[in-house]
Amino acid sequence: MHSKVALVPCGSYEPERVYQALRQGLDLVGGIGKYIRTDEKVLLKLNLVREADADRAVTTHPAVAEMLARILSEEHYSDVSAGDSGGFGSSIKSMEHLGMREELTKYGCRMAAFDEAVRTAYPQGIHAKEFMLARDVVEADAVISVCKMKTHALEHITGAVKNQYGCVQGKHKAAGHTRYPSAESMARMIVDLNLLVRPRLYIMDGIVAMEGNGPTSGDPVPMNVLLFSTDPVALDSVFARLVYLDPESVPTEGAGAQMGLGTWKEEEIDLVTPDGQLSMGDAVAKYGRPGFRVNRKKGKAEGIMNTITILRFLKPAPRIDADKCRKCGVCVESCPVDGKALRFSKGRDHPPVYNYRKCIRCFCCQEMCPHKAIYVRGRR
Ligand code: SF4
Ligand code: SF4
To answer: Would the pTM count as exceeding 0.90?
Structure first.
């Protein structure tokens, strides 16, 4: 297996600069026409995990989505939409919050609500045989995954592979967390999902990435790159290397390689830039950020020991910073565990309280807290 990843430097979200960088990246991977016919129905699968300002680096930046819509319009793609199914709230509201409606409409791109689920069988799935996909995904001929470069509490990073989890419609994502509770099982399920949805192209917004308490409560950090590939495992491995993270420690990387989605191996990746081919070492030296705050610990292997209750107390766990908590209840609503693993057991005047015996460490609460009040113990 040999995969190509294009890396294009881009130091700002100024729309014209983003437009030029997207054009360069698409040219480097052979042009959009190589992957999608103009008469096909195209879906831009953004990362709109929840409503947030563009400069917080929580979502795919609107300039990237808008300039991609512009390029597709200029290339005569007539049926294009953009959307995601975030973890909480409506993705249409997220796009409106980001001010995308007018620009997307200008380029003939519709906003997709991802509000209807379609039970989709996947008998050839290695780990998951069925998904509740958003109808917008099922009805698209071609998906372009426009992901965001961010850290993630459970999977270390959320990039190209993980972005497809938003293809699972709304509340059905919670069931996935309870059915696949470990980072490794979740990763395998998401790899199956990638193999089912098969995005034709992956584009990563790494102009400003998120480090620290990602994927929604971390800190923006300029990485100044856009990455492009048809192989999401290879693309994520370049992201990982740029932040000095061993790709092998990322669950979606190992699962992706084992299940045939792609490769993370350096010798199997051609890295191209507008200045020509670059070795991984040179790319890391030129564009990498060694101080990027990301969990670099290797995950524990699954096995019988994982089922011993006492080990639950040794695992990283979510915690609430009482000074930051505004008692909004989003975390409680987001918890997928039957009967909830955190509740307002001391009343609504106090932060919710965890029941770590019930908690499956999915970190949905940490991901959805709108006030950066939840962190993962030991990784603050
Ligand atoms: S979501 Fe965050 S701010 Fe809201 S109650 Fe939970 S911890 Fe507090
Ligand atoms: S309390 Fe948080 S980490 Fe624990 S199961 Fe619920 S959402 Fe997941």
So the answer is: yes
* pLDDT category of residue 299 using cuts at 50, 70 and 90: low
CB count within 10 Å of CB 37 equals 10
3-287: CATH class: alpha beta
Average pLDDT for 208-224: 97
Say yes or no to pLDDT of 311 above 70.
Answer: no
At residue 87 the predicted structure's pLDDT band, cuts being 50, 70 and 90, is: confident
Dihedral of the alpha carbons of 66, 72, 76, 81, in degrees to the nearest 10: -70
Q: Give the start-to-end residue ranges of the domains of the chain.
A: 3-287, 308-376
Closest CA to 125 of 182, 60, 194: 194
Please provide the CATH number assigned to the domain covering 308-376.
3.30.70.20
| CB within 8 Å of 273: residues ≥ 6 apart | 6, 7, 8, 9, 28, 283
Probe target for ligand 2 pocket from 359, 367, 379, with the most ligand atoms within 8 Å of CB:
359
* Ligand 2 pocket check for 186: Cβ under 6 Å: no
Query: What is the CA(140)–ligand 2 centre distance, in A?
Result: 33
3-287 and 308-376: same fold?
Answer: no
DSSP letters spanning 91-130 = HHHHHHHTT-HHHHHHTTEEEE----EEEEE-TT-SS--E
| 240 alpha carbon – ligand 1 mean position (Å) | 30
